[in-house]
Amino acid sequence: MDLYKKAEQLLNSYVAMKVEIENSMLEIREIEADNDIKSINLDEKSSKTNRVNKEVENKVINKPDRIRYYNYIINKNEVIIEKIENSTKVLTQLEKDVIELKYFNNPILNRKDISSKIQLTPAAIDKIKIRAIQKMMRFL
Questions:
Q1: How many domains does the chain fold into?
Q2: DSSP H or E segment with residue 93
Q3: How far apart are CA 77 and CA 65, in angstroms?
Q4: Quick check: is 49 in a domain?
Q5: Which of 7, 11, 14, 34 lies in disulfide reach of 137, CB 3.0 to 4.6 Å?
Q6: Does 47 map to a domain?
Q7: Is 1 helix (H, G, I), strand (E, B) or coil?
Q8: Residue at 50 is within a domain
Q9: Which domain holds residue 120?
Q10: Which residue from 21, 123, 140, 14 is spatially nearest to 89, judged by alpha carbons?
């Protein structure tokens, strides 16, 4: 994959990465708050093999691994987002405005909406976007 397509793919994923970070934080909060661990009742019978259900044990053991996994996802996405945001520092204000309107806002605007907001033609917006991504791609 060439650098331009990779950079554009990262920019297209910007909002999704932000959402994934927020959802991962919610998952961690839910895991940490999960106090659904119950003791075994003495009236409960184990299976014929005298095997006890390990659901509770697995839940407790897997808790740190699940939290570690979500922290990994958060960190990975935060690093990529920071690289994207840092790469915008090499852009002119107009280029930065186009990139922010195209990739960082939610809802993401199309070139017609961006052109009416910035008061340039859609073709000019496309040229500015391409030039901006070309400047950014060596930092991504």
A1: 1
A2: helix 93-99
A3: 19
A4: no
A5: 7
A6: no
A7: coil
A8: no
A9: 3-42+55-139
A10: 140
